[in-house]
Amino acid sequence: MARNPYIVLGLSPKATDAEIRTAFRQLAKKYHPDRNPDDKKAEDKFKEISAAFEILGDSERRKKYDHGELDDDGRERANPFGQWSQRGAQGGGYGAGPGGPGGGPGAGANFEDFGDIFSDLFGARQRASAQQARGRDVRYRLDVDFLDAVNGAKKRVTMPDGRNLDLSIPAGFEDGQTLRLKGQGERGPGGSGDVYVEVKVRPHSMFERKGDDIHVDVPISIKQAVLGGKVTAPTIAGDVSVNVPKYSSSGTVLRLRGRGVPKGKSGGAGDQYVKLKIVLPDGGDAELEDFVKKWKSEKSRKDFAGA
Q: What CA–CA distance (Å, rounded) separates 130 from 127?
């Protein structure tokens, strides 16, 4: 048995025509079979919504319903004299309802009321069909060395079908980023899919990356720490000479401007930070031991209490 069409659309009998159309569109989109495949309840709900709108979406039919001339199924009621109403006689009696001639969802409504619903639903279906027609996307993982990632490199990968693809890894590439090779995936009726390559960057034995900056530890001797001088420090672009100030403590950090990771299209580069670490000679040093024994200065010792 059909329900009151106002209740079906969640409206009151005082609802405006615009409110009726809005309610119908929202509910029809929600319960349309294309969005609810193999859902019998959603299908039945959609039919109920459409039948309700067939009555309320047409101003003349709505008036008749409000005056009691139509029942909840949209059929014209018999007059007190046992004859069909004029509308029923012309339309074939009860057959003029949702299941008879001229019936069906939206029979009394303007087709424009369905326009946005069908365009959304069929547009989504067409997009889905186009995607299905394309070949399948393929995903790979590629391990690259640290220096290749920060400086940029060319790599060749072999596909399962035997094809070789050349990859360009831009300078400054980060761990976990993905390269897309458009149209290089599996073939399909609607074109080829894409290849997505996730790049995993291997850690480096000396360098550590933090954003666009590079950090590295550089060992120095006690003599270099006390007297200062030049030491060789590695960078991602090769070794450079670094000036160590006199009396540099272990842990002192020197900044090499522009020696970090290239910033790609934006230009420039990060910085490199060199952390000095005083290293004692392997196997000991008798002269150094003798010097320390004779050295009485305590000026270099810092009082942790701040005194």
A: 5
In the chain, DSSP assigns E strands to: 138-144, 153-158, 164-169, 178-181, 195-201, 208-210, 213-220, 229-235, 238-244, 253-256, 272-278
pLDDT digits (tens, 9 = 90+) for 205-256: 999 999 999 999 999 998 999 999 999 999 999 999 999 999 999 999 999 9
Please, what's the largest Cα pairwise distance for the chain? Answer: 132
- 94/50 Cα distance (integer angstroms): 18
Closest CA to 97 of 211, 2, 199: 2
The domain locations on the chain are 5-131, 138-201, 208-294
Domains 138-201 and 208-294 are alike in CATH topology: yes
Q: Cβ distance 224 to 281 under 8 Å? A: no
Q: Is the domain defined by 208-294 classed in CATH 3.90.1150.10?
A: no
DSSP code of residue 115: H
Which tens digits make up the pLDDT trace of 173-213? Answer: 999 999 888 888 888 888 888 888 889 999 999 999 999 99
Give the pLDDT of residue 162: 75
**pTM score, two decimals?**
0.52
Structural fold of domain 138-201: HSP40/DNAj peptide-binding domain (2.60.260)
5-131 homologous superfamily:
DnaJ domain (1.10.287.110)
**End-to-end alpha-carbon separation of the chain, Å?**
94
Half-sphere exposure for 71 (CA within 13 Å, toward CB):
16
